[in-house]
Amino acid sequence: MKIPNSTTCLACGSARLESFYQVSQIPVHSGVLVKSRAEALAFPRGDLELAFCSMCGFIQNRLFAPERLDYSVGYQETQGFSPTFTGWAKRLIQQLIERYGVQEQTVLEIGCGKGEFLAELCQAGKNRGIGIDPGLALEHPSHSGQIQWIGGVYEDHTERTREAQTVLCRHTLEHIAPVGAFIGRIRAAIPPQALLFLEVPDTCRILEEKAFWDIYYEHCSYFTQGSLGRLLRAQGFKVLENRRDYGDQYVLAFARADQANQAFPEENDLEGLNRLVRAFKAAAPAAIQDWRNRLEAWHQAGKRVVLWAASSKSVAFLTSLAVSEEVAYAVDINPYKRGHYLPGSGHPVVGPDDLEQAPPDVVLVMNSIYTEEIRRDLARRGLQPELVPLR
Ligand SMILES: [Zn+2]
Question: Can you give the residue ranges of the C-methyltransferase domain (predicted)?
């Protein structure tokens, strides 16, 4: 899909955009790891300038160039190794089955990644699945059963939507720039009574917490409950449920193709969002400088500082701060990430078993929801570094 114009809102079409945050020359991918430090340092880069639409609340990177990204490259994005994340997926599957009757249906997942969630939903609810993801062009998941895997982008396979009683789109819409046109395509193809489930990061939390590490090039689109609800209604959906979950980190919307309904009270967030954007604009530079100072102080004191998780957040944290030897490495429990390097900053990725060789003094926990899980893991290894959750 071509981006028509970066001066209008790609959710509602309004020209009332206001830029409020810039980062230059950040890696175009942050969810992918590379095999050498040289490759990591030479990784393709792009610029980011976030703009807020005062009509619908949608936030977009107006400098985003989708042709720079290639989602068919080998991705290691699975979070299936964390008990916290696996528990979350199980709860969500139970809800889809019990509250929305996703049982013995055909379920289409747009951007299914490696397909773990779809496979589990199909197994638990005796559903048939259709999984679409550009990454599937490279390798097909080993989950057997009633699932058809399609390697490619949804735009080339929209006709498959007509077979579905449930359409899932989890952590994908934030990677799509023309979100209005994208939801419009789903609407044009989705059967009348089918369920659409969307899950995206919540931008209110990012703004409130000045969480600049949650802003990166791959994420060109940023939603709140309000802007997601407005987008769905504008494209001809009735919103059945719209809430925050996973420690308020995600927005979850359940909708059906139907006449648009009244907004829920918590979706009326335009005024508050306007204030949050202004507060973020004023405070983000100081928040970034504060982190640089803290890392510099630890470095001067001879402390070994490491990041827990080799994730998009870690890449964004390091490249937004433009730090290097102040951080030693990133740890990740996903064994496929070990031995790789973070794009942009070039930090090595180690596994938890490697920690004893170079024990950390300070562990920056990139996602605070995992803090207790990490504390237990370190304690089992006889390590008691200072744990600093990023807030
Ligand atoms: Zn808008």
Answer: 276-379
- Return the structure tokens found at 17: 């955009």
Which residue has tokens 């944290």? 317
Domains in the chain with CATH codes:
1-291 (3.40.50.150), 292-389 (3.40.50.720)
115: pLDDT strictly greater than 60: yes
3-state SS of 202-215 is EHHHHHHCCCHHHC
Residue 58 in this model has a pLDDT that exceeds 70: yes
Model confidence at 2, pLDDT cuts 50, 70, 90, reads: very low
CA of residue 199 to ligand 1 center, whole Å: 19
Cα–ligand 1 centroid distance for 60 (angstroms): 9
Neighbours of 338 (CB within 10 A): 18
pLDDT value at position 81?
67
Contact 246, 369 (CB under 8 A): yes
Q: What is the CA radius of gyration of the chain?
A: 21
| 16 CA to centre of ligand 1 in angstroms | 8
> Phi and psi at residue 198, in whole multiples of 5°?
-120, 140
**Helix or strand holding residue 289 (H, E):** helix 270-300
Judging by DSSP bridges, how do beta strands 59-61 and 45-53 pair with one another? antiparallel
